Fold this protein.
Amino acid sequence: MPANDQRSVPAISDVSFGELLKDPYPTFERARKMAAIVKIEAANIMVATRYDDVVAMERDSETFSSVNPQSLVNKVMGHTMMRKDGELHARERKAIEPALRPGAVKSCWAPRLEIIFDEVVATFEKDGEADLLNALAAPMAGRALAEVLGFIDIDWQTMALWSQSLIDGAGNYSADPEISQKAEDAARGVEDAIQRALPYHRDQPNGSVLSSMLHAEDPHSLEQIYANIKVAVGGGLNEPRDSILTLLLGLLENPDQLERVKADPNLWPTAFEESVRWISPIGMYPRRVTRDVVFSGIQLHEGDQIGLCVGAANRDGSRFEAPDHFDVFREKKSHLAFGAGPHFCAGAWLARHMVGRLVVPGLFERLRNLRLARHDEVRVHGWVFRGPTTLPVTWEV
């Protein structure tokens, strides 16, 4: 690109943070039309919102690095593998993968997840109505995550509190002291829980993530265990919780699609992939620019922070037709809900099984004539992390 065609980063300054949390998609669409990189003033961050640009950045970790010494994630959780690239990232990733591979999900976790699902649904199935956030999605995701990580004495409510506190702390750009304190308390709670569980996993190798870290060919140090378990608690609960509710919402709002999926169970995995494209639970993650570079006509400088908005890229109309619509039967194309490249979500296969093959199909089978109770009370919230925050439903008992 000729030097005189280079542009500085344009900005969107007339959108409030509250508007972004309520519905970020109109802002994302404006950003996609403006430039490859746009600053959203309300969030004080530059973002990439086009599908092809996000993919290109993910493929160039030398220029768009996960490593960021100033990251709040490092401050709250320690030096996690999410903020490492290359060999350092690969070594830590390799140590946890045995617990999360498709074979491990099928042989180790699927039977246990089925028991948890049965126990959770049994607590409310005779009620005839429920808000599925706290009745189903949060306890299912929290109990499953505690089990897979290898915690031995942590309930789902504590998992949910820790997860939210760590996420809030990692995004506490305003340095709110109350948020910082809650994040510190959660981090300390996670470390104490790890200390209680380590002797069991050290003496009895098993399928959990903690056991995998301890018994890997290149085992984690205690510092690495602390950091990577904290990042798993932070991101590993909201993703299945929110995708359970999103898939339910998409199908309940589109009963014709629901009936076709119920008639052909082979469509459940496709329905899950469409749900996380439609509303991506983890909608953005950061990268640091390592050198001055012109990217798609925009001048970037060493040290710039770019938010890769996968939630926006998954609604890019140049890749997905009618992208704002939930459509199980759209043309099959890959999405970015689980990221891409070396940092592709390690828990993706677990989420696919739990949400798309167990929980949502099982719920429609268990609860007869499941339907939205009060559509006007359904709420979907967030932009970095986004999902339904209420899903009131009713069914026949």
Notes: Residues 177-203 form the longest helix (27 residues). The mean pLDDT is 94.
